[in-house]
Amino acid sequence: QDCVVTRLQAVYPDALTVHRLDQVTSGLLLHARGKEMQAALSMQFERRQVGKCYEAIVQGLIEGEAGEVDLPLIVDWPNRPKQVVDRERGKPALTRWRVMARDVEAQRTRVALEPITGRSHQLRLHMASL
Predict the structure, then answer these.
(1) Using alpha carbons only, how large is the chain's radius of gyration in Å?
(2) Going by C-beta distance under 8 Å and a sequence separation of 6 or more, which residues neighbour residue 10?
(3) Nearest-angstrom CA–CA distance, 30 and 42
(4) pLDDT digits (tens, 9 = 90+) for 9-63
(5) Residue 4 has pLDDT above 70, yes or no
């Protein structure tokens, strides 16, 4: 009964949920005021007009300064909700990446990630492939 949208609607009765990005991690909630704005924002997500950029620290020193990972992903049924790379049956998944910094001593790389598609576990799997 106690959730974000309920609290929002106590102040803004017309508040509606548009999207929950990465709900099980740090996440981001997007709400709209009214059905018309909710539909307009939802359409932007559907048409992939919403840009997303993440920062991550990954183990290892990534070679190169920027690139793309284009590996298709599918549900790993015995271990769901995890995903695996599957070149035959996977759905397209594309991530653009750019190195922001390297920590040679700790053997880590800070990267900016731009998911072009939005598959579950996409960023994690794509970074692991590097």
Answers:
(1) 18
(2) none
(3) 10
(4) 999 999 999 987 765 566 788 999 999 999 999 999 888 888 888 999 999 999 9
(5) yes
Question: Helix or strand or coil: residue 82?
Answer: coil
pTM listed for this prediction: 0.76
CA atoms within 13 A on the CB side of 106: 9
Distance (Å, rounded) from C-alpha 58 to C-alpha 70?
18
C-alpha closest to that of 127 among 62, 80, 75, 64:
62
Poorest-pLDDT segment among 25-34, 41-50, 70-79, 107-116 = 25-34
Place of tokens 């799997």: 125
CB 107 within 8 A of CB 61: yes
Q: Pull the structure tokens for residue 119.
A: 């598959």
Find the catalytic residue in 14, 22, 70, 76: 22
Is 86 among the catalytic positions? no
| CA pair distance 95, 92, nearest whole angstrom | 10
